[in-house]
Amino acid sequence: MRTFLAGGLAAAIVAAFPAHADTADGDATPSTFELSNGMEVVVIPDHRAPVVTHMVWYKVGAVDEDPGKSGIAHLFEHVMFKETDDIGPEEFTTIVQRNGGQLNAFTSWDYTAYYERVAKQHLEKMMELEAERMTDLVINDDPEGPFISERDVVKEERRQRIDNNPGVILQEQVMSALYQDHPYNITVIGKMEEVGALTPQDGLDFYQKWYTPSESILVVAGDVTPDEVRTLAERTYGQITKSDGEVPTRGWREVEPLPATQLIEYSDPKVRQPEWERWYLSTSYSQDQDFAYALDVALDVLGGGRTSRLYQALVEEQKIAVSASAGAWLSLHDTAPAVLSASPSDGVSLDELEAAYMAVVADVLANGFTDAEVERSRNSLAASAIYQRDSQVSLANTYGRTLAIGGTVSDVLNYPDDIRSVTAEDAIAALRRVLAADKNYIEAHLLPEEESQDDE
User: Fold this and answer.
1) Beta-carbon neighbour count of residue 413 at 10 Å?
2) Which CATH number fits domain 262-455: 3.30.830.10, 3.30.450.20, 3.20.20.140, 2.30.110.10?
3) Where is the Peptidase M16 N-terminal domain (predicted)?
4) Residue-wise pLDDT tens digits, 72-109
5) What CATH number does domain 7-239 carry, 3.40.50.2020, 3.30.830.10, 3.90.550.10, 2.40.50.140?
6) pLDDT tens per residue across span 12-55
7) Known active-site residue 215
8) CA–CA distances in Å: residue 57 to residues 39, 212, 224, 290, 392
């Protein structure tokens, strides 16, 4: 399935399905503590190399934007790299790179995160830099200054990433229909006219409300001990005064059921390969963990790869499709979409593809899964999670993302055992719950311009 569109420089990191650490190696088990100003800290020892990944997660994303202010969370990510009282324009990136480091940032609906990966002796410097821009960011009315200049950059980014991409335009239309009265209905990058209207005062208000120690999580993975991180964190972040304002209320809310099934078509001369999709509302790891784990396994068996039911039937056997998949964005905080999708082979209409696809789904819903295929899928998901431990950045990302949406360290540690406990009965029950005949959905067709219904 197509990954969802997140804002920022590293959208692919947060678009992926979650990777979870295993408990087989106790050295990777994290320690947690909290600074006196409310900043949460997670330390994940990884002594394989003398490097560290340093991440700061803010409990704010596009879901928390005020009405009419869409895109400000993502815009603010850009502004954070510009200038502070003590760091000159563009100097933040230069300092990190001069110390041999890598850096990036990303914004999603549910959080914003910044990270640097450096040799361990530079960890304190990274903390100093992040603490500086948590407190002393420059936001002013200068047309060439940090806020207004980056606002123009984001507008151009929208033109390139969305307005020039037919598949993403269709996705944006689908999300708007699927989440009619929920913040997920607006792409993280925001609406062009609303981004263009954001003011430096909007930016300052957002900064003072959300960029505080109590709304942040520090995650350090690498060649460090908890005591070392605590000492450095208290010397840097610990010097930031605790906010005396009220704790902001997150924008999360219940997602209303889809009132009716709807067809959305989008055609464009740039489309070379048509695509058929169905979008259903499902659940999420935050909303109903057991249901989400069972659905994760079910969708993997149904359309999770080349061995899946759909791929084998439509691509390998019938040769009616060049791709066929099923998946869900279960790492969102609120109710997530489950997406069925396929692209037809040459000469195959979307109607023919849909009929063949849904025949496979109907057979699965009627007859269920075998124990063997469910076991294979759940073991694959667990193994993939464990393999992610080889990446220090993935480890830090997993813990940060989980805590930022209200999860716990135990959620991460227990994932392999939890996913392995899903039975064939659990999996098919979850799939039937999402794809039941009485469930409304959005059907989406991406078409070359000459195949649009307007031209028929």
Assistant:
1) 18
2) 3.30.830.10
3) 41-189
4) 999 999 999 999 999 999 899 999 999 999 999 999 99
5) 3.30.830.10
6) 333 333 334 443 344 568 999 999 999 999 999 999 999 999 99
7) no
8) 10, 11, 19, 26, 16
